[in-house]
Amino acid sequence: ARLVVLVSGSGTNLQALLDACADPAYGARVVAVGADRDGIAGPIRAERAGVPTFVERVADHPTRADWDAALTAAVAAYEPDLVVSAGFMKILGPRFLARFEGRTVNTHPALLPSFPGAHGVRDALAYGAKVTGCTVHLVDAGVDTGPIIAQGVVAVEDGDHADGGEALHERIKTVERTLLVEVVGRLAREGYRIEGRKVRIPA
Ligand code: GRF
């Protein structure tokens, strides 16, 4: 399966996918990496792996709709079977979803539907949650609201309150990378069916 991965940061989830794709049995190949900003580590990881990259910044377009169209075209050029939003910090627009909804997965560092949005780790910590974790889900028009595919649980520890969630987010990202690689591999090899809110991946 052809994967396009979208990033906005350090790209450790992307790196886990690049590493997994090195094994032909995994059944997927990262054909391009897209970013919404310059100066981040994600695209450098792609270049090191010989994977083409592109940047589509909202600020470079007169309207959000123009950015939506430009991002959609940039992704479509690589003819992906699956788009993976791995730490991509923009809401994908209607044009993009018209083309790729149902074939786009996102990873979120909280147990959805709890703590959606850009600060899931911090919000769970502030709420006093005893466990949190990560969610891999299909992207729909909402913010972190698409059908859940898989989740991983991470315990919150007392010391986590001292560093604004840094240590907790690192522990979540360790689980998240493994979960994302596992889910993307199975989607790439076996596909999936959606029954209402449930996403079934063949056992
Ligand atoms: C991940 O935890 C992702 O869920 C969140 O931001 C982090 C991105 O990490 N949105 P990386 O860029 O993959 O290292």
Automatic annotation (TrEMBL):
GO biological process: 'de novo' IMP biosynthetic process
CDD domains per record: FMT_core_GART (cd08645)
Catalytic activity annotation: N(1)-(5-phospho-beta-D-ribosyl)glycinamide + (6R)-10-formyltetrahydrofolate = N(2)-formyl-N(1)-(5-phospho-beta-D-ribosyl)glycinamide + (6S)-5,6,7,8-tetrahydrofolate + H(+)
Binding site for N(1)-(5-phospho-beta-D-ribosyl)glycinamide: 11-13
Site note Raises pKa of active site His, residues: 144
EC numbers for this chain: 2.1.2.2
Top-level taxon of the source organism: Bacteria
UniProtKB keywords: Purine biosynthesis, Transferase
A Pfam family this chain is assigned to: Formyl_trans_N
UniProt-annotated binding residues for (6R)-10-formyltetrahydrofolate: 64, 89-92, 106
Family to which this protein belongs: Belongs to the GART family.
Identification of the protein by name: Phosphoribosylglycinamide formyltransferase
Organism in which the protein naturally occurs: Embleya scabrispora
